[in-house]
Here is the input.
Amino acid sequence: MDFFDTVTTQRAIRRLRPDPIPEAVLRQIMDAAICAPSGGNRQGWSFLVIQDAAKRARLGELYREAWGELLKTPYYRGASAAPPDSREGKMIASARHLSEHLGEAPVLVLACIGTDGTRPTITTGASIYPAVQNLMLAARALGVGSCLTTIHKYRDPQVKELLGIPAEVETAALIPLGYPLGKFGRPPRRPVAEVAHADHWGRAF
Here is the structure.
């Protein structure tokens, strides 16, 4: 695919078919992930590529529980009351579908980053989230849907126990992969002039 077509049509795909993803496609996606920038070139990332049906099912159960916790937060409590045809209503419906069907995605990728035993900060993600975006862009280019979610963090200890993840490793993102039930397309976004500033805050780019 053309690079800009890939970037502008890679959106959160939460409705996925259960069809398996060929091993060669998965390897191509993961190879793109590890070509991302890494602070100090330390490459402290790790990726669990989960295809085992029992583990996917258990992660699905934990994710449903975590979704229930998220719905108690102010933003999601308000969004849940939004009209079904509103932007918030559509987002909630899509996210709820994922919460009910996460374990049915043929592949779940858990992106992790080593912390060397120190408390994670916002900059910890500087060496994992570019890799996650590379992964999702590669998936899009190959016709595979994905989305980035961190809701599993509500059940992080159980997730780590299930997958044998060491305490000093931070789970940063859970990415379901699968061929989409819907369509790719440009996501709804605010215009550049509203979010980019020219030389001084408040001066539209």
